[in-house]
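Lecture notes, unit on protein representations.

Consider one protein chain, 315 amino acids long.
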Amino acid sequence: MNEILKERLKILLKNLTWDFFEKKHFADKKIKTDLTPDTIKYLIRRDEISGLFSYVEICMRQTMYAVRHDMFPYIDMTGCQNPYLEKSDSEKCNWWELYFEQPVVVEDTVGRKCVNCEDEVMDEEVPHSRSAVLLKRSRWYWGKVYQKYFKLNERSIEYFEREYNELFEGGKLRVLGVLMRGTDYKKAKGHPIQPDINQIVSQVKKIEKKYDKIYVASEEYRNVKALEELFPGKILVNKRQYYDGIDMSNKWINEVTFNRENDGYLKGMEYLSSIMLLSKCDGLVAGICGGSVAATYINNGRYKDLKLLYYGESK
C-alpha cells in the first residue's frame, strides 16, 4: 500500500469520530462570559517561531479545549518568540493582538486563577485540522470554530478590505484562487509535498474559463510570471515581498528580512491578507499547507470548485 493511500485511510478512520465530537463538544457549548470567582483563565501561548496560520490553528484547538473544560480562553503571546516583532518589543506586546482580537472579550479578567495551555492533553482531545482538511465535515467544523471565536482586529480588516475592493472589485468578479508554496516549505520534513507548476496549471486549465480572474498567492514571483504567460490578462496579485533570488538552503522564510520599517509585522500582514483573499475566492486550487487549510475553513464551504492536491509528505 503506497504512502498516499495509507494517509488517506488514516484520515478516513479519524473521520469516524467527527459526528460524535461535533455534537457533544461543539454544538451546544459556549465560552463563559458570566465569570464567577471560580472561573479559570486558560492562557494560550506558543513560544516558538512558526507560520501565522500555524499559530491560528493552535489557538483554535486550544480555545476549543478551554471551552470543553469550562475555562475562559485568553491568547497571550507576550514575551513569546515570534517573527513579527523585535525581541525588545515582544517582551511588552501581545503580538497576537497585532492581527486578531481575543476569542471573546469580557470585563474583569485580572486576578483570576490562570492555567497554562497543555499541548499533550489537548492533542488527545481536539482533532488536528490539517490531517482532516480533505474531509468536508472537518472543513465545516473548523469553519464554524473560526467563525464563532476568531476575527481580525480593526487594522487588519481595513488592510484586507482595501486589497479586496481593489483587486476583486468588491466581489463583482468571479475569481479562482491559486496558492503555490515554495521556498522553505520544499525542505520541511513531515509537511505535505507541494504541487509543481505543471500540476497546478493542469487543474487550473480544467476550470479557468468559468472565472473572470485568477488570484495567485505565492512567495515566489516566478510562479506568478509563469501563470501570467499562460493566462494573459487574468492574473491578480496583492502587494507583498517575493523571495526569488534569496538563498533558502540554510534558512527558513521567517529568517529573511527586507529593508523596511516594521518588516516582520508587514510580512505577517501581507500573508494574512493573501489568505483572506483566497478565502473570498469562488474556487481554489492549492497544495495542502497551513495557508490552504486556513483558506478552506475561513471560506466555510462556499467554494464552487475546490482542488486540494495531496501527494504525501516529505521525509
